[in-house]
Design goal:
Number of strands: 7
CATH topology: Peptide Deformylase
Order of helices and strands: HEEEEEEEHH
CATH superfamily: Peptide deformylase
Number of domains: 1
Strand order of the largest sheet: 1-2-3-6-7
Helix content: 25-40%
Number of helices: 3
Largest sheet: 5 strands, antiparallel
Distance between the termini: 29 Å
CATH class: Alpha Beta
Strand content: 25-35%
Bound molecules: nickel (II) ion
CATH architecture: Alpha-Beta Complex
Length: 172
């Protein structure tokens, strides 16, 4: 496994719609393993392939708590089949927007279909943090960041703070 570089916004690749994967083969399995290693090291609870510069519909998630064993989920070509009418707000962050957080409102449950690491079609029902995380990561595959769910005013504040953070990193 290898740790990958995570793209920081703004980056054109983070705004690009990713392409479907034809088949889950060793190449895709290696990509997902590398993405998991990168995500755990960050640390984060979700990572989508565009965030490591690969414009394919691949994501990894692990929403288990700190004291629980790892429970990685690998999703290829995920599709949302259903979203609840009831909404929920979570304070979201993103490894492509380090140290930036905001309340985002989304459906509080969803059902998703995807190919797993063995190229098998799987359906999963999600609620709570997992539902938020799945929807956040699928957004990435469509070139959408959590800040795109906010008002222009809030988004601009975050993007300015992020630009400052980036500058400080470059100077450090
Ligand atoms: Ni993200």
């Amino acid at each position: 496994m290898a740790k990958l570089d995570i793209l920081i916004a703004p980056d054109r690749r983070l705004k690009t719609k990713a392409k479907p994967v034809g088949q889950v083969d060793d190449r895709v399995r290696k990509l997902m393993d590398d993405m998991l290693e990168t995500m755990y090291a960050a640390p984060g609870i979700g990572l989508a392939a565009p965030q490591v510069g690969v414009l394919e519909r691949v994501l990894v998630i692990d929403c288990t708590g700190k004291d629980e064993d790892n429970n990685p989920v690998r999703m290829v070509n995920p599709e949302i089949l259903w979203q609840s009418d009831t909404l929920n707000s979570y304070e979201e962050g993103c490894l492509s927007l380090p140290e930036q957080f905001a309340e985002v409102t989304r459906p509080d449950a969803c059902r998703v279909r995807y190919l797993d690491e063995n190229n098998r079609a799987v359906e999963m029902s999600c609620d709570g943090l997992l539902a938020t995380c799945v929807q956040h990561e699928i957004d990435h595959l469509n070139g959408v960041l959590f800040v795109d769910h906010l008002s222009a005013l809030k988004r601009n504040i975050i993007m300015r703070k992020l630009a400052k953070w980036k500058k400080a990193q470059d100077e450090a």
